[in-house]
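Appendix C: a fully annotated inverse folding record. The material below is reproduced so that readers can follow the format used throughout the book. The structure is listed first as tokens, followed by the designed sequence.
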């Protein structure tokens, strides 16, 4: 009976140690936010994420830019065929409205006669003109917009406590699993220690 109690105690102690250790390890990812110096040891304690925030921001920016959301992807989505056709139609209708407004002094019969020719010119010229403008915009956008730099800057601007909240919210389930894993592994080690203490 005493042997069983010994194993049980070591199991509980081992589980608690494993659980608390993993909780502390997770906390130390974020805390302390500001450096704590130990003068005698000449040692500084700082959370991993606060310490390497700039490096983390740069790596996230690079991954998003290269693997997830490149400038080419954004522009392709914004200027796909359906969007392009809608944009062409919108511009043509706006030009027609302006022409009708400016030419209202011209008698209606003449405007009706000219309307098919105006429509033909607009339908022919507007898409090609917009294609040229779009091509120029694409080149300028690729040259001037840096997804990686934008993401990196936004992360660096985040308050560390806000960044902590975001990470915990996103990885809450996984972090809880890590805590439970510490409890399980600690308990297993406690059982093994109990067996070794009793039989050796």
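Designed amino acids, in order:
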């Amino acid at each position: 009976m005493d042997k069983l109690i010994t194993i049980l105690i070591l199991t509980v102690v081992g589980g608690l140690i494993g659980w608390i250790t993993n909780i502390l390890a997770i906390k130390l990812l974020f805390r302390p936010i500001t450096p704590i110096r130990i003068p005698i040891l000449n040692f500084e304690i700082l959370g991993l994420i606060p310490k390497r925030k700039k490096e983390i921001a740069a790596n996230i920016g690079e991954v998003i830019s290269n693997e997830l959301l490149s400038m080419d992807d954004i522009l392709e989505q914004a200027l796909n065929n359906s969007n392009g056709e809608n944009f062409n139609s919108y511009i043509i209708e706006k030009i027609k409205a302006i022409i009708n407004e400016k030419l209202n002094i011209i008698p209606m019969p003449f405007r009706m006669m000219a309307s098919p020719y105006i429509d033909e010119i607009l339908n022919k010229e507007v898409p090609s003109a917009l294609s040229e403008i779009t091509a120029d915009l694409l080149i300028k956008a690729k040259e001037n917009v840096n997804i990686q730099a934008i993401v990196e800057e936004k992360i660096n601007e985040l308050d560390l406590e806000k960044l902590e909240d975001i990470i915990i919210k996103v990885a809450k389930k996984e972090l809880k699993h890590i805590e439970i894993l510490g409890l399980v592994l600690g308990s297993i080690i406690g059982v093994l220690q109990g067996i070794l203490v009793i039989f050796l």
